Task: inverse folding
């Protein structure tokens, strides 16, 4: 098995390497590390072996079985079809293909069974979407969701390296180098992605459109507010869900406890609830503060936390790759 990681020197690319090393399926993998020209020739380590970083053209010539892209939508739009064109399966972390109805948008625990050998480009959903839909999917199957109201609290690593550096610099008094239009240290702002004429920003629209696609139900009414917060790693979400059917809280907890990839952490009397600090470095999605919304019938409140670089990006991509290999789709 040969696997290329395009964007290997970036924040998500580095985590992809760690998740691949942890995977039993990829323990004997030959890595093809790919990055921008400024990183070509650098040496990286994977599974205790050293590899030289290649250009994307060299990565294509190496003919991997699978290529995980995490280099931005422009790179994906240009190069993913070239890889797919010679029967390399591309798993793309960018937003390039998420709205393309011909490209599967996959969270493995929910809809990986829809994949076939014909799917040469597979889209990885947005980080905030992945952690939202994982708990919603089993609840939707049981109770049918009418409406979702979600507010996100997203860390700076969701934006990338320069946003991370802005927060680090501001904490030592350097306010000159900005990835954001506003100070992020000791602050937060309801601005994640570009705004459009509706007043919503791109992160909010991704939550709406991607959730409907993954749950395969366009009738679900969804509204979102995305907030950037001054923490390094881990996204949190306050989620209100209205169901068609009545529910029992203990049944909700049982369903979530039995769902793959979810950990219920809900003991408020002992101050136990999901937090980004505790989710960091973990692959699971954590759910807590599960409680009835007394203001509206058949409605529920939840608090959802996940490591945005792990399950929100790298882990989900590697799990897609594992599914493909396990089911011999390459």
Result:
């Amino acid at each position: 098995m040969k696997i290329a990681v395009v964007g290997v020197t970036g924040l998500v690319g580095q985590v992809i390497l760690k998740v691949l090393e942890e995977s039993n399926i990829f323990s004997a993998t030959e890595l093809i590390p790919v990055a921008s020209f400024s990183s070509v020739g650098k040496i990286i380590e994977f599974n205790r072996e050293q590899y030289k970083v290649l250009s994307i053209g060299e990565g294509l010539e190496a003919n991997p079985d699978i290529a995980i892209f995490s280099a931005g939508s422009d790179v994906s739009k240009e190069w993913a079809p070239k890889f797919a064109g010679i029967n390399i399966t591309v798993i793309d972390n960018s937003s390039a293909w998420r709205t393309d109805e011909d490209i599967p948008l996959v969270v493995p625990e929910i809809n990986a069974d829809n994949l076939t050998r014909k799917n040469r480009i597979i889209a990885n959903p947005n980080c905030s979407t992945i952690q939202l839909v994982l708990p919603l999917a089993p609840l939707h199957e049981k109770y049918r969701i009418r409406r979702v109201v979600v507010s996100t609290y997203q860390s700076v690593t969701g934006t990338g390296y320069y946003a991370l550096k802005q927060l680090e610099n501001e904490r030592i008094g350097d306010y000159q180098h900005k990835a954001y239009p506003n100070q992020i240290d000791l602050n937060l702002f309801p601005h994640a992605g570009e705004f459009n004429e509706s007043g919503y920003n791109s992160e909010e629209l991704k939550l709406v459109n991607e959730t409907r696609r993954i749950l395969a139900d366009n009738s679900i009414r969804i509204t979102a507010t995305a907030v950037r917060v001054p923490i390094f790693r881990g996204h949190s979400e306050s989620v209100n869900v209205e169901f068609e059917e009545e529910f029992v809280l203990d049944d909700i907890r049982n369903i979530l406890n039995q769902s793959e990839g979810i950990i219920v952490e809900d003991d408020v009397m002992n101050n136990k609830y999901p937090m980004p600090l505790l989710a960091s470095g973990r692959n699971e999605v954590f759910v807590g503060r599960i409680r009835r919304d007394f203001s509206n019938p058949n409605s529920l409140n939840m608090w959802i936390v996940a490591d945005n670089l792990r399950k929100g990006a790298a882990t989900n991509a590697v799990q897609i790759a594992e599914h493909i290999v396990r089911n011999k789709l390459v």
Remarks:
- The chain has two domains: 2-125+313-326, 128-308.
